[in-house]
Every structure is written in C-alpha cells, then in structure tokens.
Amino acid sequence: MFFRMTMDVFASIAFGVELNSILMKDVHPFAAAFDTVQNLCQKRFKDPIWRFARLTQSSEEERIIKREVGVMNDFANKVIDERCDRGKTSELGPDLLSRFLDVKDGEEKPAKSELRDIVMNFLIAGRDTTACALSWSFYELTRHPEIMQKVIDEVTKVCSPADEAGGPRSRTYSDANYSYDKIGELRYTHAVAMEVLRLHPSVPIEVKFPKKADTLPDGTYINAGAACIFSPYAMGRSEELWGPDAKEFKPERMLNEEGKGLEPSQYKYTTFNSGPRLCLGKGLALMEIKLALAILLPRFDFQSKGHDGGYQSTLVLPMSPGLEMKVTAKK
C-alpha cells in the first residue's frame, strides 16, 4: 500500500496526473512495469554477460525488460504529449514536467526522451525509498507503542485545534490542520522518522567513483575511477558512532535537551548522503513520512501480525515478507 501511495504522490508531482493506484484492486500497469524492470535490472549485477544478452535479446529476462520498458515509455510519452498540447492552449501546471516545459522565449525545449528520463529518474529516486521508510516506521512503532503514543500526542497538540473555549483539543481530526507549516512543527515525529532511517536506511549501500585521484581526510589515497563503497546501514548501527545503544530504536537521540530537532552531522548520518551530494528529496521524503504518520496513527489502531525484521537486499531495503497489519478504525 505504501508503494502504491508513493507512486501516486510522485506521479502527481512529476507528471501532474492522478494514478489513484492506491484505490485499485490490481496494481497500475505503469507501477507493475516499474517494479518488474527494477527487479530484473538488479539481477544484472550477477550476470557478467548481461550486455550481450540485452543486445541479442537472448535471455527471457532481457526480453521482459524490453517489453516492460515499452509500457513505461508509452505511459510517459503519452503524458508528455498531453502536457505539451495543454501548454499550447492554457497555462502549464505546477508539476515537475511542466516546469521543464516552461522555457523562456528563445530557449529550446528539452527533447521528449530527455523529459522522460528526467521524470523516470525522480520516480526511481523518490518512490521506493519513501515507501520502504514508511513500512519500517510502522514496524518500529508497533514494537514500541509508547513511542507511537508520543507521536499521536504531538500530532493532537500541533494539528488538532482546541475548542472555542480553549478546552481539550479535538480527537476526531476531521478539522485537523496538516499544512506544511504544521507538519514542520512535529519535532518528535521528525526525530522518529530520522531514527527509523538511521536503523533502516532506504539505500543501505552507496558507491562513488572519483573523477580524479584524491586523498581522504584520514590520509587514504584513492585512485581516479576507483569504486568507493560505504554502508549507511552499517554506519547507522555502529557503536563507535552512536554509542553502546546503537541498535536500539531511540528517537530521543535526534533531539536536544529542549526537545528540539537535532540534525546529526551528514558525515555521521549518511542516510541522505552528504555535502554537495546531499539528497535533493530529503525534505520531501521526511514530510511524506511525517504527514502519513500524522494522518494515520490518530485515526487507526495498528497491530502487527508479527515480523522478524527480515529484508531483501536490493537497490533499496524493502521488508521481506511485507509487513502485515490488522488495522482497526478508532471509535
């Protein structure tokens, strides 16, 4: 469900279209193709002759990739064509695609293939990562009900208005304020999201290739083009970095003594990369997580059917198997 939700969110942000896949009985064809291609592309790492197989279409996997990429391209091209036609007769929308099409006089519009690749890049970067983070959030919160209650209490205090006489805040949440500013005030919920991603980073392993030879701060010499690999997963669980309680889920470590958000060093907390390579979608991802928690936790009771914390090692860190929940509307 979270993968469907983030796909819908990014389709709206990137394309300006509403997939509404979260309401569908079956997975949206674009989303299904997207999942299939990502899974099979990941398997290429274990196949030393995949480039030959792709060129000759000699393997079933490569034939499936070609077919499903065609489904994705057809969808993206259709949306791009519709957006270009709309731009001829009316104003472009606020979506990412429209921003790239909104060029100044004399400037050349990007080619359709470039627009498609830009949009796909954003979808790949933002859909799976946030969906995984949300699943791990509910995994940790159902294991720590006292922390879940702190999130609910904060959401009630910040987002639910008091009555006209200044009495207790409403717990119906029908008139709750989930504006950008209000979500930004959820400091404890922010700490929860950060702590989830410390223990369960959506991208567990990172690889960098320096264009030029360089020397790291500790004196390590790196050749140009050498693969430099670090693991946010391992670093997030390192007692050397986080102390003897490194493996404990403890959102308070992301807060200072006043209870305000405390962002650790980007070079210690590497979930979102660091420096010039800091993730462009960090703010959006954290806002999505906080917004989902703020809307869902006060309205529903979540009871996990049991999970051992296992995961699949792919480009991201999805739970294996999926996290089954018994969800009951609160009275």
From TrEMBL:
The keyword Oxidoreductase applies. It holds the Pfam family p450. InterPro entries: Cyt_P450, Cyt_P450_CS, Cyt_P450_E_grp-I, Cyt_P450_sf. The keyword Metal-binding applies. PROSITE patterns: CYTOCHROME_P450 (PS00086). Keywords: Heme, Iron, Metal-binding, Monooxygenase, Oxidoreductase. It comes from the Eukaryota. SUPFAM superfamilies: Cytochrome P450. Belongs to the cytochrome P450 family. This is Cytochrome P450. It comes from Tetraparma gracilis.
